[in-house]
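Hi all, posting the design record for the shared folder.

TITLE: backbone redesign
STEP: 1 of 1
STRUCTURE INPUT:
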């Protein structure tokens, strides 16, 4: 009996350029990674920048206070701050908001977001109320329209009611001095 040896199939040779495909894929992935490293991971792009503030009229914070509406923002540069009694970062931000309100450099409005009835009013009674007006957005309609992802978030609105800047996270003294205040001054110097 003779044993038969398996015959190896002839090996197909690959073109020389096919060796560069893995290198090209690596370079593309590395390029995207390098580009990502140049981006600020805290910066969340907002589709609302340079768009009008959505039409809204919020629920009154308390029966004796007027409701906040988008009409309140027309005619003056304003900050609209989204906060909640459940938000620990809002407590950290609050002294800076109080200082901003006391400076009188910009109109400051509050949006009490996702709070049960009375919680936002209790929270402001405890920490102080820096807002000219505050409305309650318990059903998140305004927050959804604005693309709010968490609290605090603050929107800088120009005299015409257009959103010009969005701050995600607390306003710090440095952010106020280096970013927001210069933007406010620039917007106030623009012709009406």
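Okay, here is what came back for every position:
SEQUENCE:
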């Amino acid at each position: 009996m003779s044993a038969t040896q398996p015959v190896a199939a002839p090996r197909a040779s690959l073109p020389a350029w096919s060796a560069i495909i893995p290198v090209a894929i690596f370079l593309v992935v590395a390029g995207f990674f390098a580009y990502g490293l140049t981006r600020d991971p805290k910066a969340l792009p907002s589709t609302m920048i340079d768009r009008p503030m959505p039409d809204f009229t919020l629920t009154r914070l308390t029966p004796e206070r007027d409701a906040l509406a988008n009409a309140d923002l027309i005619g003056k540069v304003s900050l609209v701050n989204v906060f909640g009694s459940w938000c620990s970062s809002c407590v950290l931000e609050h002294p800076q908001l109080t200082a901003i309100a006391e400076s009188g450099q910009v109109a400051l409005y509050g949006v009490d977001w996702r709070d049960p009835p009375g919680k936002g009013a209790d929270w402001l009674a405890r920490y102080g109320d820096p807002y000219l007006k505050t409305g309650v957005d318990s059903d998140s309609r305004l927050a959804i329209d604005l693309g709010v992802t968490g609290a605090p978030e603050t929107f800088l609105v120009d005299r015409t009611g257009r959103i010009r800047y969005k701050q995600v996270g607390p306003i710090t003294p440095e952010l106020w001095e280096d970013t927001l205040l210069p933007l406010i001054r620039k917007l106030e110097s623009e012709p009406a």
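COMMENT: The domain at 59-189 is CATH 3.40.30.10 (Glutaredoxin).
Let me know if anyone wants the other runs.
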